[in-house]
Fold these 2 entries.
Entry 1:
Amino acid sequence: MPKRVDHDQRRKEIVEAAWRLIGRGGFEAATMREIAAEAGFANGALKYYFSSKDDLLAAAFQHTFFRVNERASHTIEGRTGTAAIRTLCLEMLPLDSERQIESRVAVAFWDRAASSAPLRKIHRDSFAIWRKWIEDELETARRNGEISSGLSDRAIVDTLFYIITGMRVLPTLEPGATRPEAQLEMLDSVLSRIA
C-alpha cells in the first residue's frame, strides 16, 4: 500500500524551513536549493507545493504573524482589557531567542514588502487583525474603568505599533543593545501613560 502523504504538513515544513533560513542568514540564505535541503526534500519537490519562490516567501512572511497569533491566543486566555493588550504586545517583542528570530524575519520582510504589493498586503492584513484585537480590548478596558486618558483608540494602537516596531528593529540591527528588561520597562511606561 502506498505511503499516505500529508500535503498540508509538508507545505508547513517547507515554510518553516524557509523561515528558519531567513532568520539565520537573511534572504541570501533562502535559495530554493537550501530551503529544500533544510526541509529534507529534493530540490524539485518544492514546485509541487509552491508555484514560485515569491509564493513560498509570502507564506514564510505570513508564518511570522501566525506564530505570534498562536502564542498570544494561549497566553491571553483569561485576560481582558489592558492585561490582554500587554500580553499581545509581549508576544510581538524580541524578549527571547524565538521572538528574536521572528523579529529578524519580520525586519527582513519589511524591506522586501516596500517593493512588493503581495507582501505589503500580508503585513497590512496582519496588522489589521492586531489592531482589531487591541481595539476590542480597549473597549473592555474603558468599560471596566482601566483607561481614563482622552486618547483615541487609533492614537493608542498607533503608539503601541510604533513602539513595538522600533523595539523589534533595534535589537535586530544591534544585538544586545536593548535588553529584555528595558523593553518591558518601555512598554509598561507607554501603557501606564495610556491608562
Entry 2:
Amino acid sequence: MTDSATTSHAVEPEVLKNTLAALLGAQAQAIDVVRGELTLVVRAADYLTVMRTLRDAPQACFEQLVDLCGMDYQTYGEGRWEGQRFAAVVHLLSVTHNHRVRVRVFCPEDDFPVLPSVTSLWASANWYEREAFDLYGIVFEGHDDLRRILTDYGFIGHPFRKDFPLSGHVEMRYDAERQRVIYEPVTIEPREITPRIIREDNYGGLH
C-alpha cells in the first residue's frame, strides 16, 4: 500500500541561492552558503523591498518570519571588523517550498541605528523588533509600538551592546519610607575574581 500524499522535500541551499540571486539581482549585496545554511545580505535602503519580494514572489514564498534579532559587531573578529556596527538578522521560512533563508541588514549609522520595520509584512516581527530595540537600541521606523519589552521602562542604555558595563548604570529597589520603587546609581564595587587552583599530589587518584 502506497501513500498518495505528496511530500515536500527541502530545497538544496545552492539551488535556492541561484533562485534568489536571479530574483533579487543587484538588490542582493551578498548571498553565501556556509555549513549548509543560506545567508542573504541586503542594504538598508533595499531591505523593505527585498523582504516584500521574498514574501510574495512565487519562487520564494517565505510566508513566515520565525526570528529576528539585533547584532553588535563592535568587537567582531577581535577588532578586525571594518563594517557597520549594528545589524538585524532575520530568519524566514517557506512552508510552501520547505526552504529557509537568513537575511542580514546593517544599519547605515552607528550613532543612531535605524532600519525599516517589517511588521507590515509579518506580524510576528512585532515583539522581535521591540527586543532588538530594547537590547541594542536599533530603531525600526514604521513600528506602531516600539517600546522596551524585556527591561524596565526606566532602564538606561541597551544591555546587549558590547560597550555596556557589566554592572549596569543604575539599580532599582523598593524604598519602604517612600513606598515606591526608586532608581539609584550602581553601588557595586568592581572586583576581580581569581579562580582557586588546587594542586595536590595524586589528586583524583592519578599517579
